[in-house]
Amino acid sequence: xxxxxxxxxxxxxxxxxxxxGSLMLGMYCTRFVGSAEDFFIAGKAxxxxxxxxxxxxxxxxxxxxxxxxxxxxxxxxxxxxxxxMGSMPAMxxxxxVFVPYFWRSxxxxxxxxxxxxxxxxxxxxxxxxxxxxxxxxxxxxQWLSAxxxxxxxxxxxxxxxxxxxxAITGIYTFSGGLTAVVFTDVVQLVVMYVGGFxxxxxxxxxVGGWSALHAKVLAMGPQYQDxxxxxxxxxxxxxxxxxxxxxxxxxxxxxxxMSGNQVIVQRTLGARSEWDAKGGxxxxxxxxxxxxxxxxxxxxxxxxxxxNLGAENADRAVPEMIRQLMPAGLRGLMFAALFAAxxxxxxxxxxxxxxxxxxxxxxxxxxxTKLPPLREQSxxxxxxxxxxxxxxxxxxxxxxxxxxxxxxxxxQTILSLFQGPLLAILLLGIVWxxxxxxxxxxGLVLGVMCCFVLKYTPGLFPSEDPFLFVAWWSFVFAIxxxxxxxxxxxxxxxxxxxxxxxxxxVRDDEVQGAxxxxxxx
Amino acid sequence: MEQAIENGFKVVxxxxxxxxxxxxxxxxxRLPDGLAGLCGVGLFVSAMFWVCVLLNKDYVNRGRPYKSxxxxxxxxxxxxxxxxxxVYFYFx
Lengths: 521, 92
Hints:
The structure holds two protein chains of two kinds.
Chain A: H1 9-28, H2 36-41, H3 48-59, H4 62-75, H5 88-105, H6 110-117, H7 120-154, H8 158-207, H9 210-218, H10 242-260, H11 262-269, H12 274-289, H13 291-295, H14 297-305, H15 317-325, H16 330-368, H17 376-402, H18 407-416, H19 419-431, H20 437-456, H21 467-488, H22 494-497, H23 508-520
Helix pairs in contact in A: 1-8, 1-16, 3-8, 3-11, 3-12, 3-16, 4-14, 5-10, 5-12, 6-7, 7-8, 7-16, 7-17, 8-14, 8-16, 8-17, 10-19, 10-21, 11-16, 16-17, 19-20, 19-21, 20-21
Chain B: H1 2-12, H2 14-29, H3 34-54, H4 57-61, H5 73-90
């Protein structure tokens, strides 16, 4: 089963043209970058459609094509919950609860918003958590794509792939900032759709259509009877029980991801208007709804087409189908789609990590050491320097960080360890004016500690990997802590809350004026 | 290292937390299967209801470039969520 796929010269040509095209488009965007605001939030000029495209490509990596298809092969359509239940409701909540306040407050990052709403300690801790997590994710996604994907499937040297993608994404992110990232994302999603739907069409054709797929999978044995159920029973042996999916994923992890993840939210902060910011989220949700069709359904088709693959080789489902079903030319397009997913994921994370480093870590350290804030051009220069340093460092450390067993579990674990508490303080910060800075700080710190306790105390939950339940209960715990500590501490002055909470003045000009005054103080 | 943490937490926290979470688990296990689909679809429907009915229309559409049905984000919400309702109904 460990066969590599040979590429025809036409396929290679398509991949090379795609990569050079991405680089040139990214470099073209350099002309729009003259300030730190241009570099970090695209000069607040992004239209809704570009935001929607970019949110989806920032979220979907090359490994999703392989891993989600593998999960669908093993667990059925319930693997698609992460892109359906785990996206659209959360994106609606993000669009109408969080994004308007982030956008109006003119911040560059989510920790910066938390800093204004609570205090600088909350900003620094939150920024530090995100910077470390995104650094690890950057290294992991580079190595996973280069080694587990391109080396396993194509037999390419992983170091060559790693440095090639690092160089291309690094150069255009370094030069064009968020504008380059977003507009290359638009092209990359189109390429991903063409490649992904091409594979879906061919595999459905081979199986004999949807009805045949349904009948053939169900006829394969009792272990496949739940493969067409999205919400599985609570006591299922698999990792996706309905209670965890609805409460842990739908109400906590997804909302925290779509509202508190810098990589996702940064695109809306660069919107040209509040309407574009909200519309971009909704449009992104619609585009994202189609992702499971091209990443999960091929996994179901593989059950019929590759019945002897076995659960242990489920991640080979997509590579095997590419090898067996796709002709020369289309195969090149599919690999261009995988490169597109890989590059967009890396560039988005790179740009967001840089923004957090500059705004929440360097900015706060300068403030605490009584140094003046960075000037516009200095921030731009430092942003570019950190972008270059990050891509080189993560490429160098990619193998030792990521070359471990159960890398997906590691990634999910580090994400689930703070998503619940982060959402709790974000939500209370916006909807409850009584939430105080000490309540927010206690909720964040004790909430993360609660995550560790729930995660590392064995036998509390039926699932072997209970990250969905950990997210839900840590969210509930952080809400309680924040409320209790807030009620025990003095309320925040009204002036501080202006424009940052649901019930405060919402007239744009007035709020922007008040916030501008605070920024320039 | 990870094993040592798990062992330590099991001694300290398991006796306190297990009765709480195990009793919640036994309640959840007894819930009827049909409730899963109802909660799933309910999440999408209630989000649509919230945006289209409960939220202030001006707040939802603040900053829109021109007044037209096609720039109304309440319509966008329905268009982007309705397919999900059908999907969760189909795969129930």
